[in-house]
Amino acid sequence: MVSKYSLSFVMLIWMTACAQPEPAVETSDVKIYEGGKGRIVDIVADGNMAVIRHDEIPGFMMGMTMTFGLREDSIRSAVQPNDSIHFDVAFDGIDSWISKVTVITEE
User: Is residue 72 a contact partner of residue 62, using CB atoms and an 8 Å limit?
Assistant: First the structure.
């Protein structure tokens, strides 16, 4: 004999298995870190990334050499290897990319 609790459990499992999955919710939690300063070491990945030797980026990371994405055409066309730059970094929790750049002209 099947108890009412067993039947309820079976019904719960069946309803869960038949339920449609919830759609993924996309968020745009992007944080901007200002005040980066460094030098472009190389442009890689068909111009979509730059290797930058940078000083500490306040609130984000210590100074190091690393790769950042170059998502905007205007930024890609503005920089080249050996340029000294001031820049902002956008970070979405997974990827980081240059969101603003100023090439420092040495006089």
Answer: no
Q: Is residue 49 part of a domain?
A: yes
Highest mean pLDDT out of 4-8, 25-29, 34-38: 34-38
The token pair that represents 90 in the structure block:
């956008």
Query: What's the maximum distance between 2 C-alpha atoms anywhere in the chain?
Result: 91
- Which CATH number characterizes residue 69's domain? 2.40.50.320
Q: What is the pLDDT of residues 6-25, one digit of tens each?
A: 555 545 454 544 544 444 34
Q: How far apart are CA 29 and CA 93, in angstroms?
A: 8
C-alpha–C-alpha distance, residues 8 and 107, integer Å: 79
Confidence (pTM): 0.70
Q: What residue type is assigned to position 85 of the chain?
A: I
Phi, psi of 67 (to 5 degrees): -100, 135
Tokens of 93: 């929790």
Establish if 22 belongs to a structural domain: no
54: in domain: yes
